[in-house]
Amino acid sequence: MDFPSSLRPTLFTSGPLGLSNVPDLSFMCSWRDALTLPEDLPQSAENVAPHLARDLRWEPETPGPYPLLPPNPAPWDPGLTAQDLLFRGGHHFCKRPRATLDVTEQLSHFLWHHGDIAFGPLGNLMQENFKLEGARSRSKKKTVVSVKSLLQDLGGHQPWGCPWASLSHRQRRFSILGGPVLAKSVASLLGELLQEELAGRWGQLLLNDTVTGGALAWLPGKTSLAGQLVYPTGGALDKLCFQEISLTPGSDPQVLGDPGHIQLRGPVRQVVSRTVQGEALLAVRSDYHCAMWKVSKQGRPAPLQVLQVEKGATGISLSPHLPGELAVCSRSGAVCLWTPQDGLQRVYKDPKTLVFRDPSPWRWADFTAHPRVLTVGDRTGVKMIDTQGPPGCGLLLFRGGAEASCQKGERVLLAQYLGKSSPTSLNPSLHLICTQFSLYLVDERLPLVPMLKWAHGLPSAPLLAQLLPAPCPSAPQPLLVAGHGGQLQLLHLSGEGVSAPRLAGPPQSLPVRMDALSGFPLLEPTSQRQLQERLSAPTLGLTASVLPSACTPGLALFHLSAAGDVFYQHLRLQECSGCCRNTQPPRDPGPESHAPVGAAPSPGRTPTPAVASWTPQATACCSRWLKALLKVPQPPPLWTAPTFSHRHLLGYKQQPGDEGRVPAGLRAAMGRGRLLRQQDLGSLPTAEPPPAPESGPEDELSERLSEAWEGRGAAWWERRQGGSAGPGRQVRRHKRRTQLSSTFSSLSGRWDLSDGPSPPPSPDHLSLEPRPRPRPPATPLSQELWARSVPLERQQTLRDYMAKLPPACPTAASATPSQASSIRSTPSRRQAPRKKSRMGF
Amino acid sequence: MSDFSDELTRPMAEADEVETSMLSGTGMYIPWLRKQMETVVTGGRKEKDFAQTTSACLELIQEALLKHEWQKAAEYMHSYFQILEDTDTSKRQAAPEIIWRLGSEILYYHPKSNVETFSTFADRMKNIGVMNYLKISLQHALYLLHHGMLEDANRNLSQAETWRYGEKSSSQEILINLIQAYKGLLQYYTWSKKKTELSKLDEDDYAYSTATQNMLNHSWKTSINFCALIQIPGVWDPFVKSYVEMLEFYGDQDGAREVLTNYAYDEKFPSNPNAHMYLYNFLKREKAPKEKLISVLKILYQIVPSHKLMLEFHRILRNSEKEEHRKLGLEVLFAVLDFAGCTKNITAWKYLAKYLKQTLMGYFRYVSKQGHQVLRKKIKRMNKSVKRYSIVNPGP
């Protein structure tokens, strides 16, 4: 692990973001990055121009990615857009447009469409007679209005959408006098909550950080070319699928059989896979749960552990050093490490952000080149912490500030350790840090000073990145960076041995899913729109695999879209890059070095890139996929105004059962100035239900939803619980959680639980909050006695050493490491008694 | 050249644009917010056609660059120059930097471009907007340096060095220092060349004395060039390295030591492992006492326990008389072996094996001195096997 012998000159200033009076020495040109200073001697000055491959390029084979697997059978609904949330009025006096949330429109929609809910209770209270204190001058007779007579005036007629419908004087007077009062009560109760909700939705539309890290993973199989894609599917992305894929260097990948799947109780946000010391592990993050599986050689997952994160998990990562170690970060600012030996332990906790104050609860953690050091990141910076050191210590690896010449408003969006892919030619101590403007490569041995900075200019948040192994020795390593909106960039990184990491060529963009449109047959406008909408869904996951080949190395790239579709793109390294053939002749000293730049391409270069075209297989894939897509039912229209009649308002009175409770509850709620919620009333009044949405296939979610829609949600829940309704909400919530976590993973499909040695879905659930917990059982990794006192990270290496020794001297061997361990200073944490694991390690 | 004064306030002019693009309440800037809003805002002030075409053009250039379509990008660039006539002052002032960044990128990769084209472009750009003169000069010089045109690069830097605009601001000062340092580096290259020539010459030769004279001149000039920059916090590896080499050559050991100590231990500087390595190598050349070397490496050990000098550190510690040093030596070795890139380091494993062997031997000796007859025999056997097997050659 060599440190670059001479680093690029960099100015080091400390200070806040956007410090303007400091020249930005990182000039942000890819060519500038290649201009490292010539090493030491002027003799080499003639051939200093480092090999900056002008045409280093991964050429896509098809104009765009095409669907590899059948479409997700659930309809895709793009959800809220800026148009739904923002104020659409003119900005006549504003020089620059400003985003304003349109609360009034949403509120008026609510009042308009749900008048019965908004005004019903109040109207009901005021039914008999009430006094409107609007105008004192008028006689008392005129200010007293009977609601009953008002409603009788309406006579069942609803002037929906027609402000000029014929109204009686009484009604008009009522609306003038009562309008402010009625609207005020609703606005005061709902306004603030609505504003908060809309701001949250708008924030999520601009930056959806739940998908950070990506929900698509590649599990390598027996050979490097076979493996499984792991991705979520289903309407709520809660079904984890395992699809076997066989890659062939020359042609399209083969999809083998139907995918196996695991039904989870929550949307899958992140899927991580890692193979360490021959053990393949898979970890999944949902909003409030994380789960881990061990994948056998046959590709069957066996559940290891389910963790519950009370405040919500924001990121997980698997250790590249030790099998089964999982780092989990929660919104509360805690970072926990789960190991099969020691169970769950909290290694870091700080609700505050690292560098300056930022309201985002997003946290991230990853591993480093040292097995016991983790990085902890938030929006403002990234810190390295020693899990064995005292709490609170650590070293800032990246600081959002003048050190990295950050701009004003710049925030960390992704932090990734790049030493994970094992055959790496780059130093295994590099970390990638992405912000909305730039990406940085930071070496953990020289914190705070980025080794490389590149302004990616992506038009959406870069939340996914993957460093791939070099396609052939001494070639630059491709680094893929994907924006949430689907844009993809590929950077070529090189920096072997004692040279600093640098861009080996100009970065390139890769085709997006919308580019696949040309591969589909022309459609009628409605279907075309459906297709376009589906193709432009945001990217949720990205994974790639380098296909080594004798002639031209290939790259298999898989994307997962938010609609649950998996797309595939094949890229191949342009032949003329020459990086794999070492054809680049050293430049001759003398006048020839003054030759025009790139005017004389070296032999073997083909300056014109091959134009990608659709292969018959790809178009066949596209049309097959399209046929299946058009069968997917359209999402139901968002919401249409139900045709309520005023009779419900009167109808409340006729219900004998609710006579006492509802008004009492309402009065109590109004007295406290709070919203009246269903829980306050107990069971709901059984009013005439609005037409329920069509229920789809028989599943629990839709069943529950339709029950809830008809107002029997609580009853359904109680039925589900087996009639044992707890008295308090707290108990119920706890039970729900227990049930959720115990059933978070239930195997179905291809894998039968009974035929494997794997334990049933883990009943364990551990809270990430700092409450006392029983120490989980631990397993020594091996049966050898010495292993107990040796730190985990050294066991493998020591075992390797032992393997080298002949079996003839067992005594000497056992004496050797114990000698080593006795010198170790504090192995105290490991002195705890160990039991055999239940988790199958 | 009349609007110099408002060009200097350019960074401020961008501030209000930032304001509108913050994510409500978080202070975070969202570059893609404008696009989202464009889908909504229908009324109000619309962008002028001019602004629309220039921003579309910029997007096309960026797209072409990312697709490596240099020809296409160059064509769009031709149209993009219209932005220099934008009536919006803030945009017009930000333009030269964008043009330089994109233009130099295109010219660097364009198949028909050459050094002359690039130089012409750079010279033109230097004089559009004073704010960029120094930056562009520096990059231009680096470009020339890369194409082996040391003299042109030197001339360029000399020109830039004397450039002044208005009151000297701190950023100007730093850039000028940087330019001087690069110039110093170029001089170092020539000096270094002369040094190798000199080593071939005979000492009694007449040419020898003139050459030495030449070199002395060089050294004096160069040291001035380096001095100012390396006082400023930063990573200045190439400059420090060459400066120290020259100082050492002229026997200014104290000066060199001071430069290196300052570079390694000044708290305002980032903790650069190379600074410690340079200092250590210097002290080693100087034949400094062992204690001094150990103290330098101890600090490096705390910063970068995986550094390749750690094996050397272990070797020094192993041969030390002190018990604590020997203990630290093992700690250092284990720390090295923990790191991902070092677990397969054969030298480190060899050292560990050697260390263990030594310790075991000592132990056996101790036991056989006190132990019983039976134990002694057993230990003798073990002793033999320990001696016979090493990690590198497992067994005969």
Task: Write the topology of this structure.
The complex is a heterodimer of chains A (841) and B (396).
Chain A (H helix, E strand, L loop, with lengths): L9 E2 L18 H5 L23 E3 L5 E2 L14 H4 L17 H11 L1 H11 L4 E2 L8 H4 E2 L1 H8 L14 H38 L10 E4 L5 E8 L5 E8 L7 E10 L6 E7 L2 E7 L3 E7 L5 E8 L4 E6 L7 E5 L3 E6 L3 E7 L14 E4 L5 E5 L3 E6 L8 E5 L12 E6 L12 E6 L2 E6 L8 E4 L6 E6 L9 E7 L4 E7 L7 E2 L4 E3 L14 H11 L3 E9 L6 E8 L4 E8 L42 H16 L15 H5 L9 H11 L6 H4 L18 H10 L3 H8 L8 H14 L3 E3 L17 E2 L24 H13 L5 H14 L18
Parallel strand pairs in A: 13-35
Antiparallel strand pairs in A: 2-33, 3-33, 4-5, 6-7, 7-8, 8-9, 9-34, 10-11, 11-12, 12-13, 14-15, 15-16, 16-17, 18-19, 19-20, 20-21, 22-23, 23-24, 24-25, 26-27, 27-28, 28-29, 28-30, 31-32, 32-33
Helix pairs in contact in A: 3-4, 3-7, 13-14
Chain B lengths: L3 H5 L1 H4 L1 H6 L12 H6 L10 H18 L3 H11 L8 H21 L5 H12 L6 H14 L3 H12 L8 H31 L5 H26 L2 E2 L1 H13 L3 H13 L7 H13 L4 H14 L5 H10 L4 H16 L7 H25 L2 H16 L8
Helix pairs in contact in B: 5-6, 6-7, 7-8, 8-9, 9-10, 10-11, 11-12, 11-13, 12-13, 13-14, 14-15, 15-16, 16-17, 17-18, 17-19, 18-19, 19-20
Structural write-up:
Chain A: Residues 831-841 have a biased composition (Basic residues). Chain A: Residues 283-419 form the TAF1C beta-propeller domain. Chain A: Residues 810-822 have a biased composition (Low complexity). Chain A: Residues 776-841 form the TAF1C C-terminal domain. The complex is a heterodimer of chains A (841) and B (396). Chain A is α+β, with helices and mostly antiparallel strands. Chain A is 22% helix and 23% strand. Among the domains of chain B are: 1-128, no CATH class; 148-232. Chain B is extended, with a radius of gyration of 31 Å. Chain B is built from 20 helices and 1 strand. Chain B starts with a helix and ends in an 8-residue tail after the last helix. Helix content of chain B is 72%, strand content 1%. By secondary structure, chain B is mainly α. In chain B, helix 11 packs antiparallel against helix 12 (206-231). At the A-B interface, strand 1, helix 1, helix 7, helix 16 and helix 17 of A face helix 3, helix 4, helix 5, helix 7 and helix 9 of B. Strand 1 of chain A pairs antiparallel with strand 1 of chain B, so a sheet runs across the interface.
